[in-house]
Each structure stands twice: as structure tokens, then as C-alpha cells.
Amino acid sequence: MVATFKTIGLLRFSVLTPTYYSERFKTLEQTAVHLFAPERMELRFRLFEALCLPSLARQSDPDFTALVLTAQALPEPWLSRLETLLAPLPNIELRQVGSDKHYPLLRAAYQSVDLGDATHRIMFRLDDDDAVDRDFIARTKRLAAGLVALRDQNAPLIIACNRGFYVDTTQSETEVFDACERAPLAAGTTLVAPVDYPNNPYRYVHRKLPQYYDCYSDISVPAYIRSIHGDNKSNPTQMGLTRKMKPRQIAKALKAHFHLTFDDLKAL
User: 93: burial class by Cβ within 10 Å (0-12, 13-18, 19+)?
Assistant: First the structure.
């Protein structure tokens, strides 16, 4: 049997749930106050509009579905702003979800996408403050097809984008630097599996995915931009090589793979 694929991405934009941020806030009401604070929402929109959304809209292969999950409780004017941003992009869908447990919400979202006659799903994850390179979808499809053909078609596998850039806005001067990680990041990490496989790439902490799946580490090109700012939920730690490229090399790679410049990132 020749495998056929449906590519589905999912990112969370201020999803309100009792099992996410539970380590910081004791009640759903406290979590909502944090999530929907005007200063935080302005920051999340600035990063989403400058990094995440353009990286999906500029893909060289637009044949994918990306779901943007947000809370049913997302207040105005933020909801209208999000709807306006996504309206021109037919393959990027806004989904409002209730305040159920975190992982079941994500699982239901992945499972809601029509698969047609596909035998396998290519499921990627992306945070709303990060970006993937413009050939991410096309390259991931090629890798998925090749890896599935080489293996037991029923065995799930992970494709991790382990080479890219960080932009750190927390210092007195914004720093942009390269990194080549030795463990999967959240940005662009992909689970390839038969359509009836119940899990998705949010099932386990991304750094621990090689403990549960065969994992292909792709360092062929810079594939992600990870932002460090005042509202990172997790501590952005680099696990691998960093700061090996010169500024002119970084500038060239940003333009070629992301259509971005140093000035674009420093404006964050």
C-alpha cells in the first residue's frame, strides 16, 4: 500500500483550561485574568502577527490545514482582531473551545479535520510566538513520505526541526542567535502516524519525545525562530550548539528561509 497524507497543524492562542497553567494559578478565574490581561494580549498579538502567522501564510506548499485554538471566553476586541487576521487565509481556521481539560481539547481538534482518503496524518505543533521556515510544509511532507516508506507503515514517528534561531527580547538589546538542538523543540515538531492513531505531538513533553517514538532530527536548514520574551510559559533553554554563525550569515539565512531581517526581529 502506498501511503497518502493529510497535513494538520495546531497552535494555541490563549486557550483557557484548568489543566494548563495549573502550576501557576489555583483557579480558572485566576488563569483567565492572566491570559486576557491587555498587556499580555498586546504582546501575544505582536508576536503572532510578526512571526507565527506570516510563517504559515508564506508556505511554499499551501496544502495543509492549521487550526488556531482560542478560548470561547476570549474577550473583545481580541476575538474580532483574531478573526480579521485569519479571514483571508482559507487553510488556517479559528476554533473557539471551552474550558475542558487541555489535552482532550487538542486531541479533538486534530481529529476534527476531514482526512479525505489519506492513510496517514502529518500532525505538527507550533506556538503562537514562534515561526517555521517557508519550506517547512513541503520538506516535512517529503521526509514523512520517505520515512514511512522505509519502515513499518503502522509505526508512528517524530520529525523534529532541530536547527534554527532564537530572538531574545529580554535584554537591553535584542539578540538574534543560531542554535542546533540535541532534543526536539516545540516549534514545528511533527508526529506522523496512521489516521486511526489516537495521539498527537502534544501528548508528551517535546524534549522527551525520543523516549516514546523513533525520532528523525532534521538539521538540513534553519527551520524555526523561537522568541524569548516576558511571557514565555516554559523556560527557553538551549540544549545543544549555539552562537556559531556570524551576523552576516544569520542575516542571509533569515532572508532566504523566513523572508525576515534583523530589523524585523529587533522590532519585536
Answer: middle
pLDDT tens digits for 31-59?
899 999 999 999 999 999 999 999 999 99
Here the cell at position 168 is: 531574545
By the 10 Å C-beta count (0-12 exposed, 13-18 middle, 19+ buried), 84 is classed as exposed
Q: Quick one: which of 144, 89, 137 has its CA closest to 121?
A: 144
Q: Between the CA of residue 123 and those of 13, 34, 127, 204, what are the distances in Å? A: 18, 29, 14, 14
pLDDT band at 160 (very low <50, low <70, confident <90, very high): very high
**Residue 176 and residue 226: Cα distance in Å, rounded?**
10
Query: How big is the CA angle at 149 (ends 143 and 155), to the nearest 5 degrees?
Result: 90
Q: What is the DSSP letter of 21?
A: S
Quick check: 100 and 26 in contact, CB under 8 A?
no
Average pLDDT over every residue of 178-184: 94
pLDDT tens column, 17-36: 887 766 677 888 998 999 99
| Dihedral of the alpha carbons of 242, 204, 108, 40, in degrees to the nearest 10 | -50
Say if residue 65's pLDDT is above 90.
Answer: yes
